Amino acid sequence: MLFDTHVHLNADQYKEDLEEVISRALEAGVVHQVVVGFDRPTITKAMELIEKYDFLYAAIGWHPVDAIDATDEDFEWIKELSKHPKVVAIGETGLDYYWDKSPKEIQKEVFRKQIQLAKECGLPIVIHNRDATEDIVTILKEENASEVGGIMHCFGGSVETAKECIKMNFYISLGGPVTFKNAKKPKEVATEIPLENLLIETDCPYLTPHPYRGKRNEPSYVSLVADEIARLKNISVEEVQKRTFENACNIFQINK
C-alpha cells in the first residue's frame, strides 16, 4: 500500500487523461493521495476532486510565489473550506526565494498567517521551501508551528535541517529527486533519517523520478521513490511502503 502525500492532479497537465492516470495509480497500489491547491483555481479543482473520488484528500493554502496576490477574503475562504472532512492540511505554504514575483516580506507575512490559520483549524502544515531554509525554520519556531506539525514537502535540505524540523513535529517528505544519480542531500536524508520520520510523494506532474525523468510525473511513480529509499536503507520495499503509509495516515488523521 502506498500513500502519495503531494500530488497536483488539479493541474492542466492532466486535463486529457486524468481517469487513466488515476487508474494507473490504483493499479500500482497507491491507496491514498493528497491533492494540493495553492491558489483560487487549484483549490477549487482540488475540492471538486475530493468530492468525486473517495481515496483523494486535499491540502489547501496559498503558494509563496503568489503571496502578493493573497487577500483577507482568500484566507477566510480557505478557513471555511478547511472544515470539509477531507481537507487534511493547510498548504502548500512557505517561502520561495528563487522566483521574485512576491517580495520576501510579503511572503513571510502570508506564511505566518497560514501557520496561524493551521493552528486555528487544528490541521498540519505543508511547507514549500526554495532557497529559504533559514527563514522558514526561524518562522516555524517563532510561530510555534510544532503545535500542529506538518510536512517538509519534497525536502532537499541537509540531514541537520531535517533533524531540526523533526523536533518541531514535521515529517520529512522525499520525492523524485531522491532517485536522481547526483542528488547527494536527498540520498543522505533517506539514509540517515529514521523511517518513522519519512513520507513519500511525487509532486506530480513535476520532479519525475528516474528512469522517467524529463517526462510528466504521475502518482503511480511514487513506488520508485519507495524503492530507492529501501535500497539506500538496505531494507525491504514493503517495510518502506508500510511505514510511510502509516506515517501519512497519522499526520493527516486518516483512518487506515
UniProtKB/TrEMBL annotation:
Pfam families: TatD_DNase (PF01026)
InterPro entries reported for this sequence: DNase_TatD-rel_CS (IPR018228), Metal_Hydrolase (IPR032466), TatD-like (IPR001130), TatD/YcfH-like (IPR015991)
Keywords assigned: Hydrolase, Metal-binding
Keyword Hydrolase tagged: yes
Hydrolase in keyword set: yes
Record GO terms (molecular function): hydrolase activity
Name by which UniProt lists this protein: Hydrolase TatD
